[in-house]
Amino acid sequence: MPVLRSISRRFLLVFCFATSLWAVDPNRHISQYAHTAWRIQDGALSATPNVIVQTADGYLWIATHGGLVRFDGIRFVPWEPPNAKPLSAVFSLLAGKDGSLWIGTGTNLARWKDATFTDFSGSSGRVNSILEDSHGTIWITRSRIHDAMGPLCQVVGNKLRCYDKADGLNTPGAVVLAEDFEGDLWIGGSGGLFRRTGDSFFAYEPESLKSARGLEGVATLAAARDGSLWVGIGRRGPSLGLERLRRGVWTPFVSPQLKGSALAVSALFIDRENTVWVGTLDEGIFRICAGKAEHFSSADGLSGDAVSGFYEDREGNLWVTTSEGIDRFRDTQVLTFSTREGLSGAEVYSVLAAQDGTIWMGNHGALDSLRKGTVTSIDPKHGLPGQGVTSLLEDHAGDLWVGVDDALFVYERGRFIQVKRSDGSPTGIVLGLIENRDHDVWAELLLPTRLARIKHRKIVEELPTPQIPAAASLAPDPRDGVWLGLVNGDLARYRDERLETFSASHGQNSPVRQVLVSAEGLVFGATSGGLIAWHDGKVQMLTSQNGLPCDAIDSLLADNDSALWLYAQCGLIKIENTEIERWLEQPTLSVKTQVLDAFDGARPGSVPFSPHATRSSDGKLWFANENVVQVINPEHLTQNGVPPPVHVEQILADHKPYSSLNGVRLPPLIRNLEIDYTALSLVTPQKVLFRYKLEGHDPEWVDAGTRRQAFYNELPPGRYRFHVIACNNDGVWNEEGATWDFSVAPAWFQTIWFSILCATGVLFVVWMLYLLRIRQVTRTLSVRFDERLAERTRMARELHDTFLQTIQGSKLVADNALGNLQDPIRTRRALEQLSQWLDRATQEGRAALHSLRTSTTEANDLAAAFQRALDDCRRETSMTAVFSSAGDAREMHPIVRDEVYRIGYEAIRNACVHSSGTRVDVVLSYADDLSLEIRDNGVGIDSAVATAGRDGHYGLKGMRERASRIGARLTVASSAGSGTEVRVVVPGRVVFRKPLTPIEKIKRLLKRMFHK
Fold first, then answer.
1. Quick one: which of 308, 623, 729, 737 is 20 to 30 A from 745 by CA?
2. Which pLDDT score, from 0 to 100, does residue 14 have?
């Protein structure tokens, strides 16, 4: 059974490892990883870090001497448990499989899960390490114990079950824990090494402890997949301090790279690639892979030499905690070779991939070569005939051509054979070397500038300028001839002793730094103004206007899939062959590109000699940038396929923090809302991109770029959902993202009840206005009806009192005439009287019609109207009619004016027809008020009739009704035999359009005084 259990556990772990994410590539030097350090002295952390873990939500947690810190790759945020005592020094952490975070401090153990903080206060002592075994059981080791419990404890529920010497664990304190692939638990401490199998403990004593005294003991452990256990001893002694235990046998680790040094090991870690990482107390870190050790310390950029721990996150980044900060190591797509990897110098001018797999690099002071990961150099001490290597070329026979200083050599069988001019002098500085289809070698030379053709290692032709324009680069034509990238930015082809020039028209002072010719005859040129392409005699330019991230291109290569790689100012740009073909057919199209920038390891730069770039037989692309050589393998580009977890971290409403839990109700009238979010991709956090949308406010997704904050101003009350998604450095999106539901409370005037009340009020006001309008319309119609009725009544009175009476009298005269037909004299007299009465009826009918049609609307002058009425009176009677007017005429309201006219006309008609007088006087006066007086010297009116009117007659009654309608005061003064006086006074505010100004009043007053 134990054998079956071991086999099944090994299979399971190997399977899990096979499907896990990658780790840092063990085939690279440590210096070739992308390395980032966050140092305490730079303010990243406030205290010394001890350990790092990553919880299920993607956050990194850093235990420090000052407490606990949460890290998202960009921001360090100190963390304190809610409703609990602040954490002091934290020495150990564990990210549980259930998403919990276990925290070991200098006094006790705690757990943070599902927003609940649990303090295991029943324990005491410093918690040095926490481990979750394969069965999900939590174990801790303790030291500096102040209770009766042992150094190894198991979490059971919310309590601890501890083991001590009574259980077989004979050590005063335990420091480190490890579980091997058999499921056994290993405990290391000051008392040595112990193994727990089942319920039994077995002691093991490392050789380092046997041969030395006063040592700290076992400081760290790491279980390897081959069943061995790596053991680190915590203090420097006479032995190395690093041993392996396998099947009960101790083996000290020995490596020529360590040179017999004794190490004070403080941390051990085995990554997913089975690489062993060793942290020391004062020498930084060592990496052990395939029996070889490599060192990396503060001199190489490590934050500190005292290492306390390692951690590998889910994306394969390796984290290191030191006494001075934390460090991250990760792979990059672009690999760099520099002096740290063995190059002789930092002035790499050219790079060439040979047919045998060797990579040759022209350096200042040496010719470097890379074979199977090892760099060797040929310098002047080993036969290099000069100091500076310029251009390189491998011909069809495999011979290496090397430009050194101002001469050209062929490196053959370990010797440099010089190629000279016909006069025996050196060739000059070699800018570029190529071999054409006829196996002739062409060289672009300086001092003087010329193009030389070399055959059988002899210069057979030299073409100086200006016969051949100055060229910055050369390339062989696959059919015949040589392509030249000219200094002035044009392309040229030389063949059959004839030069053809093709203008690129991209500006001056932009030399063609490299020319690349495909097997199909397509020519590309790299310039600072973009990419030149020559196709079927036509030249076109690809620039940032067509989709390039930048225009300055230093060199270019095609990979095995014919994709084009541009070593440009902004990074390494990849353009697929299909995109190139589309652009060649339609030069105005934009191409799709993939960019590897500085975060991916690209460090572009230009070199004065060639080749700038080369492709090796294994498909890798090599680029020289004047300081280092960089390489990329297009066929094995790794991709970060882990979608980043997204979190809403903090909400600030008017600078006041609120919970990021769903259902938060914000107060009313929020002016500024700030939402902080993050995405936990730790490979390159600077390249994480975000999109967000506030449902209920934003109609579309908002591209936030790398910004980790969203801002909203003056959100109206309502319910909202903030949704944010993110992608990692390789464009893998977490489409689910994170959401935050919240609401904004309405102010009292934003509530629905207030809206209903306002709507009700508006409806009520509208209804009242409607009713008022109806009343106004009704009143207007009533006035019009009253006017019509009054006019009909007046006409009835006039017809009754005048016209009908005259007709009735005419009828009596006619009847009298008919009764005396025998008497012709009486008949004639009756007919004459009838004619007079009919004439009188005609005049009275005309007068009635005249009263209907006559209006002062057009003339706006009552004086003229009354004058016409008096003229009618003179024609009908023998009365003397006199009219007088006082004051200047003023603009009057037409309705009031007409009513005044009809009152006056009625009074004039009554005086003319019924007074039996000889004189009538009419006085019209314009003052503050309008007054009208009509006086006659007739028989007068009885007082009772003047007051109530005569039965069956409507003249006086109609006059009073009209006066009342316009607010005028009407008085009738009369007595028998003394005549009648009718006086009408209309208030000025009623009849006049505009009141008198103070100046007009003064003028009127002065005029009156002067008149008197």
1. 737
2. 34
Cis peptide before 466 (omega within 30 of 0): yes
Percent helix, strand and coil across the chain, each rounded to 5? 25, 40, 40
CATH (domain of 944): 3.30.565.10
Determine the pLDDT at residue 579.
Answer: 94
* Residue at which a domain ends, from 302, 331, 360: 331
Flag residues of the chain having pLDDT under 70. Answer: 1-22, 121-123, 207-216, 235-240, 259-261, 505-509, 787, 790-791, 793-806, 808-809, 812, 840, 844, 847-860, 944, 946-954, 976-977, 1000-1001, 1003-1012
Are 405 and 522 contained in the same domain? yes
User: 950 and 979: one domain?
Assistant: yes
CA-nearest of 92, 73, 77 to 46 is 77
Q: Do 923 and 1011 share a domain, yes or no?
A: yes
Domain range enclosing 955: 855-1012
We report the CATH number of the domain holding residue 27 as 2.130.10.10
What's the number of domains the chain is made of? Answer: 4
Residues 555, 574, single domain; the answer is yes
Taking alpha carbons only, the member of 97, 88, 99 closest to residue 50 is 88
Q: Are residues 327 and 343 in the same domain?
A: no
pLDDT computed for residue 681 by the predictor: 94
Instruction: Please provide residue 514's backbone torsions phi and psi, each rounded to the nearest 5 degrees.
Output: -155, 145
Q: Concatenated DSSP letters for 357-368?
A: S-EEEEEBTEEE
What pLDDT does residue 929 have? 87
Q: Does 349 lie in the same domain as 314?
A: no
The reply to whether 784 falls in a domain is no
The residue with tokens 């990329």 is: 632
Is residue 805 included in any domain, yes or no?
Answer: no
Contacts of residue 848, defined as CB under 8 A and 6 or more positions apart, other chains included, come to: 795, 798, 799, 802, 803
Residue 570 DSSP SS3 = coil
Whether residues 289 and 248 share a domain: the answer is: yes
Task: Write the CATH number for 701.
Answer: 2.60.40.10
* Per-residue pLDDT, 941: 80
In a domain, 823, yes or no: no
User: Tell me, what's the pLDDT at 119?
Assistant: 87
Can you say whether the dihedral through the CA atoms of 752, 755, 757, 763 is positive or negative? negative
pLDDT at residue 21 in the model: 52
User: What pLDDT is recorded for position 20?
Assistant: 40
Burial of 168 (0-12, 13-18, 19+ CB in 10 A): middle
State whether the Cα torsion 345-347-353-354 is positive or negative. Answer: negative
Residue 827 is assigned to a structural domain of this protein:
no
Same domain membership, residue 370 and residue 269: no
Asked if residue 830 lies in contact with residue 837, where contact means CB atoms within 8 angstroms, the answer is: no
CA 608 to chain centre: 43
Residues 6+ apart with CB under 8 A from 1009: none
The tokens for 524 are 């590309």
Crossing angle for the helix pair 824-853 and 862-876, to the nearest 10 degrees? 180
Count Cβ neighbours within 10 Å for each residue of 293-331 and write b for 16 or more, e otherwise: bbbbbbeeebbbbbbbbbbbbebbbbbbbbbbbbbbbbb
Cα 104 to Cα 111: distance, rounded to the nearest angstrom: 9
Of 587, 607, 636, the residue that ends a domain is: 636
pLDDT of residue 662: 87
Token couple for 546: 């067509």
Residue identified by tokens 């059971």 is 156
Cβ atoms of 739 and 721 closer than 8 Å = yes
pLDDT at 9: 38
Centroid of chain to Cα 974: 96
Residue pair 806/844 in contact (Cβ under 8 Å)? The answer is yes
Can you tell me the distance from the alpha carbon of 551 to that of 532, in angstroms, rounded to the nearest whole number?
Answer: 11
Non-local (6+) Cβ contacts of 229 within 8 A are 178, 180, 186, 221, 222, 223, 244, 245, 246
